[in-house]
Amino acid sequence: MAGNHVGALRRLANQNGLSLEEFRARTEAGLKWCYGCDAWHERAAFGKDPTRSGGVSPICRAKRNERQRGLYVRRARTKSRVQEWPT
After folding, report:
1. What are the pLDDT digits (tens) for 1-37?
2. Which residue did the predictor score with more confidence, 18 or 83?
3. What is the phi/psi pair of residue 59, to 5°?
4. Domains of the chain and any CATH numbers
5. CB 26 within 8 A of CB 40
6. What is the pLDDT of residues 34-60, one digit of tens each?
7. Integer Cα distance of 67 and 72 in angstroms
8. Phi, psi torsion values for 60, nearest 5 degrees
């Protein structure tokens, strides 16, 4: 874990294969790294996440939607069963 803010930025830059200057230039330009699709996107492409320090999700909306669609299992519709009351 990084001991200060600069160390944290260096770690993030190294994870993305960039120098610290390149990483800062991209983040100051309003870009954010998506850990789902491994690409840079505009910050607006990410959903809000108040539990994270930056306030946005680490995965862009498009990738998150793609993953959720892959997890969805469509179930066959069944006829609704009408319960008959005893007479």
Report:
1. 457 888 888 998 998 889 999 999 999 999 999 999 9
2. 18
3. -120, 135
4. 5-71 (3.30.60)
5. yes
6. 999 999 999 999 999 999 988 999 999
7. 9
8. -65, 160
- Measured between alpha carbons, how far is residue 11 from residues 26, 28, 37, 57 in Å? 15, 17, 19, 19
SS3 of the chain? CCCCHHHHHHHHHHHCCCCHHHHHHHHHCCEEEECCCCEEEEHHHEEECCCCCCCEEEEEHHHHHHHHHHHCCCCCCCCCCCCCCCC
Global pTM value:
0.70
